[in-house]
Amino acid sequence: MSDKYIHRLLAASPVLETLGLMLKGKPERVHVCSQSLRCLLLGLSKVEEFTVVDAPLLERIIFFKPPYGGTDCVRFKIASAPKLRVIGYLHARIHKLQIGNIIIKPDTIASPCTLVPSVKILAVKVNFVVFGEVKMLASFLRCFPSVGTLHIEVLGNS
């Protein structure tokens, strides 16, 4: 299934509120634009880039399967999702977060361009033995200043 088929599916489903995508092969990039979607469940095994382009009602994004095979990271871009309240499970090593045009790095300082204040619940996976992942967790938290509930899955031998 290519990105254009996903786009057509969303365009042809104007009342679709929940979508679960389990993508094992292509596409390498997935762009979501939906005026009705409220929840996305994503298993992006070989997807290199996932972008929420325009989803005004989107409230939840849940990554339920990490990438494997051809990719070791997924760029996760949030362009426009003003009602986004829940994100999980962001993996500190695998997910490369981008908000607008800014790529979030371990040393990213919070600014109005890097904030998503609508997010109230955040779930992350982190290996506390890997210092880079701990720094990435801190950057994630700076991007979501209104998080009231934080779920952490500890990975590795920590």
UniProtKB/TrEMBL annotation:
- Name of this chain's protein: F-box/LRR-repeat protein 15/At3g58940/PEG3-like LRR domain-containing protein
Q: Where is the F-box/LRR-repeat protein 15/At3g58940/PEG3-like LRR domain?
A: 1-152
Q: Which InterPro entries match?
A: F-box_dom-containing (IPR055302), LRR_FXL15/At3g58940/PEG3-like (IPR055411)
List the source organism: Aegilops tauschii subsp. strangulata
Top-rank lineage group of the source organism: Eukaryota
Pfam families associated with the record: LRR_At5g56370
